[in-house]
Amino acid sequence: MRTEKIRGRSPNSLREATELGLRPRIWAWFCSLALVAQIFTLNAVPFAMGAWDKVWHFLAYAALTLLLWIATDGKRPALVVGAVMVLGCGDELRQALIPTRSADLLDFAADAAAAVVTGATLLFLQGKRPCAESSPR
User: Phi, psi at residue 9, to the nearest 5°?
Assistant: First the structure.
C-alpha cells in the first residue's frame, strides 16, 4: 500500500501525465524550435546591443543547449553541442548576407563557448564521461 501511494500520487500519475501530453522532451523540442526561430528572426533586424551583445549570445545559445539536452534526454551530448555550434556558425554566416548586419567572429565564439560550457556542465551533473565506447556501468 505504501509503495502504491507516495506523497499523494498514484502509480499511474506518470502514465496519466504522458497521456495528457505533458511530455517534457516534446516541450523541450518545441521550445528549441521556437528559440531557433527567434534567433534567426532577430538576426535580420538591425539593432545595437552594446556591451551586452556577447552576454546575450551566450545566454541564448546556453538556453538552446539546455533545451536540446532535455529534448535528447542527455543521451547525445556531442551531437547537441555540435548542433548548437553549427547553428551559431550558420547564424553568423546568415548575418553576413544581410546588408544591414555583419558577421562577427566573437559572436560565434560566444555561441560556441555557451554550447561547450553548458554541455560540459550538464555532462558533469549527469555523472557521465564522454567516451567512444558506450557501456553501462
Answer: -110, 140
User: What's the pLDDT at 49?
Assistant: 74
Q: What are phi and psi of 80, to 5 degrees?
A: -65, -50
Q: What's the rounded Cα separation, in Å, for the pair 33 and 80?
A: 14
The total domain count for the chain is 1
* Contacts of 120-127 spanning 24+ positions with Cβ under 8 A: 122/65, 122/66, 122/69, 122/74, 122/77, 123/74, 123/77, 126/74
Distance CA 64, CA 85 (A): 11
Q: Report in angstroms the alpha-carbon separations of 22 from 9, 26, 29, 53, 94.
A: 16, 8, 13, 35, 35
- 15 pLDDT above the threshold of 90: no
23-42 pLDDT tens trace: 788 889 999 999 999 988 88
Q: Is the residue at 96 inside a domain?
A: yes
Domain that holds residue 99: 25-126
